[in-house]
Amino acid sequence: MDATVRGPAAVEVEGATQDSRSLTTGMLFVPLVAARDGHDFIARAVANGAPAYLTERAPDPEVAATALVVRDAALALRQLGVLARGRIKGHVVAITGSVGKTSTKDLCAAAFGSHWRTHSSAKSFNNEIGVPLTLANAPHDAEAVVIEMGARGIGHIAELCAIASPSTAIVTTVGAAHLELFGDLETVALAKGEIIEALPIDGLAVLNSDDELVYAMRTRTSADVLTYGTRGDVRSRDVVLDAELRPRFTVESPWGSASVVLGARGAHNVANALAAIAAAVGRGAPLDVVADALARPQLSPWRMEFARTTSGLVVLNDAYNANPVSMRAALDGLAALPASRRIAVLGAMAELGAGSIEAHRAVGECAAALGIEVISVGVEQYGGTTVSGIDEALGVLRERCLGPGDAVLVKASRIGGLERVAAALLAG
Which segments constitute the Mur ligase central domain (predicted)? Predict the structure, then answer.
């Protein structure tokens, strides 16, 4: 990293952050310019314990910390990620796909963590900021690092792989998410497949055999390939959901079979678990140990969170994000719940491009076919009861006199902020 040091050169840092609010003592502060200029928070970061910071400005002599003066802090962060990757001697697992990236990341962290000291991306840190920060914050003794990668155009995944140099890569699905940005599914597949092309010859590609565009990526690498799904190397059978949507199933693989009680809810998470199993066991973890660990993953918030109020109302909070595939999976989960009434509070699915109206209409038809009542927040195409905002949605829910035996699903793209509906229901 090309930087001019101002202040004590012999300073030790432990990790990095771009957020002065989340900074802990010993971390390097990286001021980025976005809606707000991170340089305005350097003094706060140092007061919170940062011994050093990057800066594109002349250092303030009143700030008692080492300044690393760079021309471009964002570029310096990416270079820092490359340096951090260089000290990681174990597995670096990268995950992408239109649906299921974060859940698969969480399950992979559990699977690899059953056998190796494992660090994984926080939240959905999956871009040119989150990926280098994940690497920079990996403990020195980490034996595996699990990273999520997103893309908003051709070349984005390749750029992230240039930072992370993954040794194992997983592609979950190629779907209609972000079609406004990509145009068509073939372009999505081209972008997502960059993760497979980045693998070294001794790498491992883990591909969903039930998605034709993902399955076709096996020709884009010289690395070893493992597939998962109904025709894959790693398969499931005898899938059963319990009363709280936790799947139980038997995994069959080249290494034998094992019983799994999955800690992530919804039948759709079985495929994500198979991907995690293929990656971890394919890299040498014992199948039975991995299967056991998948009962206790540390899951990211607002992904099929199951809660029951004191009155007996079940709330499914899947409000982190939404696209046509994940919407259908969530509706299937709601339909599988033993409930007297099933209501879905649905917000918009963003970035679907020209097919947006039809995609929303199809989700509404799916809900109707499953016997689910829809409260639509700002999207008439879903059908059901259309409201203008969250407060009005809550008003309609209160009119329904919800109680024991009823279940409510909350789901929308991130911009919708519908987790507030779930929070209000749980607060009573």
Answer: 95-280
